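Figure 3 (text version): structure tokens given as input.
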């Protein structure tokens, strides 16, 4: 029905634009856990809410359409979506996974899957040669995250998909940082798209949710069976919150991305900033690949100050962003990977990956970019006075 509309319009005008029964312009929240069956030997569309619920289904249909897939699945968190998708694997299988994968995924692969006989190898996914070299006979899955966290490294999705298909492997992409507004991996041949909908898709730092999308019918059926078996489904109030957030996804990301680019340019010119990581900068090593496979660089960037003391001074002075883990919200969020997302990683390992004690990650929100620049300018002045004299 909405096939010809642009992404922006599809966010609002889809099958759930209004409720057929009442005309209500917001998806009804169906709390029922069970559904009356009208005939003694036939089930209706719904029987039990773990297996299917109309509110959750509205979100599942919405994300499937936006990603260009056929089936969507909503989970209680991003990690529930990711963990359930990993259950497509079996004992004896091997996973090739990007070395700068999200911390929770790292934990799942290294401390849970390994106990079930599923082996893994971490690779620099930006290096296709290294990917090809590490595919084994029992490799069944190649797992990507692009741009990656926190250094915004860019993986050539089609390059990896080509290697995967030649070796009969599935491909997953964690699309949390860009959302289908900016990157649609299924169109590039990927098998499963995963999301922490906690971030940009819902967008207001007020709900935990995860999503998965497939295009292939048989794979969709297998993932549905796993969602129903494992049971980590999204509650209906939370499904409604994600649906509500989705309506403004395009306008939020457009505004935040524009500000992120302005801030990246500002930081790159500042004497006290050693390095800026943002795929919208022409000197970013992944700039060409990113520009080719996406519709924009997104709203997350990282930048490096001289050392931990400089970070301490900066964070103590800066006023607008909240200092917290997470990203993808209406308010700007500043985080310190060395002591937050990557605190568990040994220092040498962290440094080898470029995650220094001076690195900060910024998820740009909807504040005026002039206010953000004024705030950052003042905070950087404070750094200058205390650390560099
Ligand atoms: C937050 C995040 C996750 C995990 O999602 P939760 O909703 O916190 O479980 C996975 N991948 C990425 C890239 C994330 O940022």
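Below: residues designed for each position.
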């Amino acid at each position: 029905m909405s096939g010809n509309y642009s992404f922006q319009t599809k966010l609002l005008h889809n099958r759930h634009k209004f409720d057929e029964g009442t005309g209500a312009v917001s998806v009804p929240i169906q709390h029922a856990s069970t559904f009356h069956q009208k005939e003694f030997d036939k089930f209706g569309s719904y029987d039990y809410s773990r297996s299917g619920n109309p509110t959750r289904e509205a979100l599942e249909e919405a994300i499937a359409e936006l990603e260009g897939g056929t089936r969507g699945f909503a989970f209680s968190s991003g990690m529930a979506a990711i963990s359930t998708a990993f259950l497509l694997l079996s004992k004896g299988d091997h996973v090739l996974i990007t070395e700068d994968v999200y911390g929770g995924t790292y934990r799942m692969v290294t401390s849970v899957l390994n106990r079930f006989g599923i082996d893994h190898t971490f690779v620099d996914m930006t290096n296709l040669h290294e990917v090809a070299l590490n595919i084994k006979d029992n490799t069944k899955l190649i797992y990507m995250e692009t741009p990656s966290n926190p250094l915004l490294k860019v993986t050539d999705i089609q390059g990896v998909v080509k290697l995967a298909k030649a070796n009969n492997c599935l491909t997953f992409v964690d699309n949390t940082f860009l959302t289908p507004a900016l990157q649609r991996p299924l169109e590039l041949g990927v098998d499963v798209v995963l999301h922490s909908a906690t971030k940009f898709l819902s967008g207001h730092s007020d709900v935990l949710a995860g999503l998965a999308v497939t295009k292939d019918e048989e794979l969709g059926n297998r993932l549905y069976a796993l969602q129903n078996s494992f049971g980590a489904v999204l509650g209906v109030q939370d499904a409604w919150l994600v649906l509500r957030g989705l309506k403004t996804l395009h306008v939020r990301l457009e505004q935040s991305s524009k500000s992120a680019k302005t801030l990246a340019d500002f930081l790159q010119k500042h004497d006290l900033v050693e390095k800026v990581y943002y795929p919208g900068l022409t000197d970013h090593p992944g700039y060409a690949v990113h520009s080719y496979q996406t519709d924009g660089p997104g709203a997350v960037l990282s930048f490096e100050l001289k050392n931990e003391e400089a970070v301490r001074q900066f964070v103590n002075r800066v006023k607008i962003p909240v200092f917290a883990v997470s990203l993808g919200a209406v308010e700007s969020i500043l985080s310190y990977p060395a002591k937050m997302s990557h605190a568990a990683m040994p220092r040498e390992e962290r440094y080898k990956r470029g995650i220094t004690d001076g690195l900060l990650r910024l998820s740009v929100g909807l504040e005026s970019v002039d206010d953000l620049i004024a705030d950052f300018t003042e905070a950087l002045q404070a750094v200058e006075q205390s650390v560099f004299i």
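Residues 77-79, 102, 104, 145, 149, 174, 176, 196, 198-199, 208, 210 surround pyridoxal-5'-phosphate (CB under 6 Å).
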